[in-house]
Structure formats: structure tokens, C-alpha cells
Specification:
Elements (H helix, E strand, L loop, with lengths): L4 H11 L8 E11 L2 E10 L3 E2 L3 E4 L2 E7 L10 E8 L4 E5 L4 E3 L7 E10 L2 E5 L3 E3 L4 E11 L3 E10 L12 E10 L2 E10 L1 H5 L9 E8 L3 H9 L11 E2 L2 E2 L1
Parallel strand pairs: 1-6, 5-7, 6-9, 7-10, 8-11, 9-12, 10-13, 11-13, 12-14
Antiparallel strand pairs: 1-2, 3-5, 4-5, 13-16, 14-15, 17-18
């Protein structure tokens, strides 16, 4: 399985990681519009990544929860999620609980997420990932939009275990977040999260969590609404990139 090979060398080299075999899991989901509602028309899984039946709390919008039965990602695990949303389909995909990446003695855990939206609407709203002190992880998320696609999604990382007084003083998380519209790049972001990054003024300045939200299509009015949001203890910034709110 090819999980973010362009990030492999950096994370592995920094950690001195040796190859390891953990869980290999893959989940494919395809959503189609049939009549007045969206259905989960295709699902296939290998290993411990599954979904149960879809839900319809919003009428025609298909809600799906992605389940990872082991309950956490350990050193050497490789997980891959592939979603496809067809024309006029509307899907919301989330998780029932936060993801957990446990500490590693050397091998790196990897998560790859490929989201394709062709003329439909996808709300990608997984709960946050918690990276335990000492975790070594690579996460790559690629969003590809085409036609009249609409997208709202986020990626949230919590570093260390603040409630236990266990900061992220050891470990390394490399993240890649990309979005394309009709084959044209609107966003290609990479970040390295480690103890120096968490502490530095140019990094998280002592913070223990970071997240990015993407919304397309967006306009100047939505950008101003986003910039007006204030949350105590949280630093927020927003920009508009050719119709993409970041």
C-alpha cells in the first residue's frame, strides 16, 4: 500500500525507524444519488476499517460513521480510506470517537485519505486525532473536486495528553493536506509537528492542538464571517484562495 511516499523518508529518517508490519486496513466507499436520496452504493474493506448501516437524520443526506475496531493506531499500522461522491449525491462522513495514535519505539504509523467529489457534496467531519507522547505518524489527506462539487471538511490534531499533564515532548507527526479543483491545485500544505514546533513562537507557541477547515465554494462574505469568530484561548486565521475558504 502506497501511503504518502513523499513523506516517508523524512519521518522515518527522523525517527530512525525500521520497517515493521502492523495492521493493514483499507476502506472504499462510494455514494450515489438515487431518486430523492443518496445511498451508499459501494463499500469494500480489508482489515479493521468498516462502516455499519448509513443513517438519514437530515432526510436525503447519507450519514456514515467510519469505525476502527482496534480503537487506536500503533507503530507500523497503515490505514487507507477512499471516498467517492457522485453527481448530486450528498454525504456526511464522520467517526464515532477521536482517533488515537500511540507511542512508538521506532516504526511509523500511516494514515492516507483520498476524497473524490464529482458534482456532489461531501461533509468530511472526522473527530480529532490524538497523538500520544512519543507517537511517530504520517497523515496525508487529498481532496479532489470536479464539476459542481461542494466540500466542507477539517483535520484536527491534538498533541500529547493535556488532561494527564503529558505534553508532546517526544515524537513526530508529519501531515499533508491537499485540495484540487478540476485538476488544479488550490491548496498543498505540509507541516511537521514535534516538540520544538509546539513550543516555538513561530509554531504553536505552547499550544497543544491545531486544525484546518476547508470550505468550497466560498466568497468574501463567508470569509468575513469566519474572521469575525472569536473563541477564548484559540488563535484563528482565515483566508480565501480562489473560492476556497481556509
Amino acid at each position: 500500500m502506497d501511503i504518502a511516499p513523499e513523506l516517508e523518508g523524512g519521518a522515518g529518517a527522523a525517527a530512525g525507524a525500521a520497517p515493521a508490519r502492523g495492521w493493514r486496513a483499507r476502506l472504499e466507499l462510494g455514494f450515489e444519488r438515487r431518486g430523492a436520496a443518496t445511498v451508499l452504493a459501494h463499500q469494500r474493506h480489508e482489515g479493521p476499517l468498516v462502516v455499519q448501516r448509513p443513517f438519514y437524520p437530515e432526510g436525503p443526506v447519507c450519514h456514515v460513521y467510519v469505525l476502527h475496531p482496534p480503537g487506536g493506531v500503533v507503530a507500523g499500522d497503515e490505514l487507507q480510506v477512499q471516498l467517492a461522491v457522485g453527481p448530486q449525491a450528498q454525504a456526511l462522513v464522520t467517526t464515532p470517537a477521536a482517533g488515537k495514535f500511540y507511542r512508538s519505539a521506532g516504526p511509523t504509523a500511516r494514515l492516507r485519505q483520498d476524497l473524490d467529489v464529482t458534482g456532489g457534496t461531501l461533509e468530511w467531519l472526522p473527530q480529532e486525532n490524538i497523538y500520544y507522547p512519543g507517537a511517530l505518524a504520517v497523515q496525508a489527506t487529498q481532496v479532489r473536486l470536479s464539476g459542481a462539487a461542494r466540500f466542507l471538511g477539517w483535520e484536527i490534531a491534538c498533541l500529547g495528553l493535556a488532561a494527564r499533564g503529558a505534553p508532546f515532548e517526544q515524537g513526530l507527526v508529519r501531515q499533508q493536506l491537499e485540495l484540487q479543483l478540476d485538476g488544479r491545485w488550490l491548496l498543498c500544505e505540509r507541516q511537521r509537528l514535534d516538540a520544538p514546533m509546539c513550543a516555538a513562537r513561530w509554531g504553536l507557541a505552547g499550544g497543544d492542538s491545531v486544525g484546518t477547515l476547508l470550505a468550497y465554494p466560498a466568497d468574501a462574505a463567508l470569509l468575513e464571517q469566519a474572521r469575525a469568530v472569536q473563541v477564548e484561548g484559540v488563535t484563528l486565521a482565515a483566508t480565501l484562495v480562489e473560492g476556497l475558504l481556509v
